[in-house]
Inverse folding.
């Protein structure tokens, strides 16, 4: 174990998938430029204009199936496979690139593009196709009640108890490719600091929460993440 580090929590954001060709949320030309967040990513927007929201997510669901994991995803999968201590990769990303790269100890706190959630019977289904055509739920058969299984603003992110439990046990918290603009994910570094554990930011540029990290390395994820993984694995 490197420098007494046994248990690691890693938080990833859109920056880790940027070099795979998925726009980040807050970059120039990013998704919010084409669709305002309040037009698509709230339950109120979905109630007001479901066609807009479903079309938007259908388009993104299709897009993520055409891109590939990059060197940062593969490096994190290598770390997951090799690390004998506890490790939890908490991703805010709703793409499936971490699992396609091979990471197993993974949790999607903001949901997944490739899941549909039935608001009639509460079942979740793996979903690769469209929702705009109002398909029937495979479990209850009710049509038109499936929505993207995405955590929208004002909704509770998934598995917060598991995230805080992992942080309680952690010796190191690493944040990768996230702007630190969206809570509660953005608050995890503060929780980590209050517990006295090491904190490291790997990001293209200083994030909103940069000053909370004990160490920072700035650069593209495909460079800084593999370099850090090799270092912590001691190779
Ligand atoms: C690279 C790179 C490269 C680029 N290499 N790096 C005031 C205070 C506190 C909270 C609130 C508040 N007002 C409202 C809230 C709550 C709200 C919130 O945080 N709002 C903010 C806007 C202020 N949060 C919520 O509503 C959440 N729920 C909630 O709080 O429930 C109550 C609760 C309380 C306490 C505990 C538990 C629960 C829900 C948030 C849901 C977020 N959903 C989204 C949309 C998903 C839909 C979709 O995909 O369409 O999730 S928002 C969007 O932002 C998405 C992302 O996961 C999330 C984070 O974005 P991320 O990943 O950081 O991306 P970017 O683009 O912001 O940053 C990319 C970074 O990468 C940049 O820094 C680049 O520099 C970098 N980069 N290229 C390395 N090659």
């Amino acid at each position: 174990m490197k420098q007494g580090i046994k248990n690691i929590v890693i938080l990833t954001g859109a920056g880790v998938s940027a070099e795979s060709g998925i726009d980040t949320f807050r970059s120039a030309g990013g998704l919010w430029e084409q669709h305002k967040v309040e037009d698509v990513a709230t339950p109120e927007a979905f109630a007001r204009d479901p066609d807009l929201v479903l079309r938007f997510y259908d388009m993104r669901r299709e897009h993520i199936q055409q891109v590939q994991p990059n060197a940062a995803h593969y490096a994190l999968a290598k770390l997951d496979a090799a690390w004998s201590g506890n490790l939890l990769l908490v991703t805010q990303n709703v793409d499936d690139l971490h699992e396609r790269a091979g990471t197993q100890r993974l949790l999607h706190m903001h949901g997944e593009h490739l899941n549909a959630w039935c608001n009639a019977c509460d079942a979740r289904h793996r979903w690769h196709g469209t929702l705009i055509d109002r398909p029937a739920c495979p479990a209850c058969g009710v049509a038109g009640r499936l929505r993207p299984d995405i955590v929208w603003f004002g909704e509770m992110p998934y598995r917060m108890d598991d995230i805080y439990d992992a942080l309680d046990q952690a010796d190191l918290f690493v944040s990768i490719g996230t702007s630190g603009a969206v809570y509660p994910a953005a608050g995890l570094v503060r929780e980590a600091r209050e517990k006295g554990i090491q904190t490291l930011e790997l990001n293209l540029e200083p994030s909103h929460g940069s000053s909370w990290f004990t160490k920072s390395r700035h650069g593209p994820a495909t460079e800084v993440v593999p370099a850090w993984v090799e270092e912590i694995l001691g190779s």
The beta strands are 8-12, 87-91, 106-108, 111-118, 124-126, 146-150, 172-176, 198-203, 215-218.
